TrEMBL record:
This is tRNA-specific 2-thiouridylase MnmA. Keywords: ATP-binding, Cytoplasm, Disulfide bond, Methyltransferase, Nucleotide-binding, RNA-binding, Transferase, tRNA processing, tRNA-binding. It is found in: Cytoplasm. It comes from the Bacteria. It comes from Pseudonocardia endophytica. The active site is at 101 (nucleophile), 195 (cysteine persulfide intermediate). Residues 145-147 are annotated as: Interaction with tRNA. It catalyses: S-sulfanyl-L-cysteinyl-[protein] + uridine(34) in tRNA + AH2 + ATP = 2-thiouridine(34) in tRNA + L-cysteinyl-[protein] + A + AMP + diphosphate + H(+).
């Protein structure tokens, strides 16, 4: 099988490519150049798109003895991931750029080009298990590294042409395997930051692009104006720190962001218990089987990449789905994805996902 290995320059994608070679596939490595200005992503970044990372990917390809190329997808990345990220925050939502990158870049733009070039599959270093013939996407064997949530946006036709070779192995063993193969990236730190914000200053990044959009911080219960802010893009539902309120709540407990109204610029704050939600409305559902459900079904719902799970019933409605939670979840923000897992098999199998519009 001809396999295109997406190589970020990290240990995970490096070992994934090595396993594809060991499996006897005809493998070609490709590094994705996603920044419009390469120097803007400094060497040593904790993201995954620096020039250092490109060099690490090239060295790994040399060790594995496979062809290696760099594909410039910076314009599409800027449009579909970065601009989407900024627009979502401006609209009071909390997007997940890694999820959008998987959907629009790695398994749309890259996969389409790979198919056109005659490749049978795209291989990545994601921590998830996959049976492409079904297709059936499952959680990783390493629960601490599981990335099935950020892959739950993929369609059945995309999953049939994907390979996740390391999803059955704990991260510690992946590093040992890389070391045994003589790969210099064996001890390389994991990437943590948003790759296009290597400084980690998300608020500053958004302020540079959106400027000042003053609004009010309002007490959810009393309607009292507690302060002002420079823009709703500086907040997300569930946020506790950095609210800019100069006095404590009447009960002395912390306040949290409960809701964001982008048109009026109002940020509603209140107690932690007010973050509890029992119903989620979501748009644009994607079903990994390729077929929409005939009616309501039970599942385990997940609203964050790690944690935030509850038993739920998903009800198809016009334009999307309603998710009725069996137990309350906190800090559910519009713009996030809600992923659906099959309730048997320990909730390991991904059924689909949708983008959250409201939670109450």
């Amino acid at each position: 099988m001809r396999v295109l290995a997406a190589m970020s320059g990290g240990v995970d994608s490096s070992v994934a490519a090595a396993r594809a070679v060991a499996a006897g596939h005809d493998v070609v490595g490709v590094h994705l150049a996603l920044a419009r200005t390469r120097d803007a992503l400094r060497s040593g970044s904790r993201g995954c798109c620096s020039r250092e990372d490109a060099a690490d990917a090239a060295r790994t390809a040399d060790v594995l003895g496979i062809p290696y190329y760099v594909w410039d997808l910076s314009e599409q990345f800027a449009r579909d991931v970065v601009d989407d990220f900024v627009d979502a925050y401006a609209g009071g939502e909390t997007p997940n750029p890694c999820l959008r990158c998987n959907e629009k870049i790695k398994f749309e733009a890259v996969l389409e080009r790979a198919r056109a070039l005659g490749f049978d599959a795209v291989c990545t270093g994601h921590y998830a298990r996959l049976d492409p013939s079904v297709p059936e996407l499952r959680r990783s064997a390493d629960p601490d590294k599981d990335q099935s949530y950020v892959l739950a946006v993929l369609r059945a036709d995309q999953l049939r042409n994907a390979l996740f070779p390391i999803g059955d192995t704990p991260k510690s063993q992946i590093r040992e395997e890389a070391s045994a193969l003589g790969l210099r990236v064996a001890g390389k730190p994991d990437s943590h930051d948003i790759c296009f914000i290597p400084t980690g200053d998300t608020r500053g990044f958004l302020a540079d692009r959106l400027g000042s959009r003053p609004g009010s911080l309002v007490d959810h219960e009393t309607g009292e104006v507690l302060g002002t802010h420079a823009g709703v893009h500086g907040f997300t539902v569930g946020q506790r720190k950095g609210l800019g309120i100069d006095r404590p709540a009447a009960d002395g407990r912390p306040r949290y962001v409960l809701g964001i109204e982008p048109v009026s610029g109002t940020v509603r704050v209140g107690s932690e218990t007010a973050l509890d939600v029992s119903t989620i409305d979501a748009r644009s559902p994607v079903w990994t089987s390729g077929a929409a459900p005939d009616g309501p079904f039970g599942c385990v719902a997940q609203v964050r990449a790690h944690g935030g799970t509850a038993p739920a019933e998903v009800v198809p409605v016009e334009g999307g789905v309603r998710v009725d939670l069996g137990s309350a979840l906190r800090g559910v923000a519009p713009g996030q994805a809600v992923a659906f897992y099959r309730p048997d098999d320990a909730g390991d199998v991904v059924l689909g996902s949708a983008t959250i519009t409201t939670a109450h």
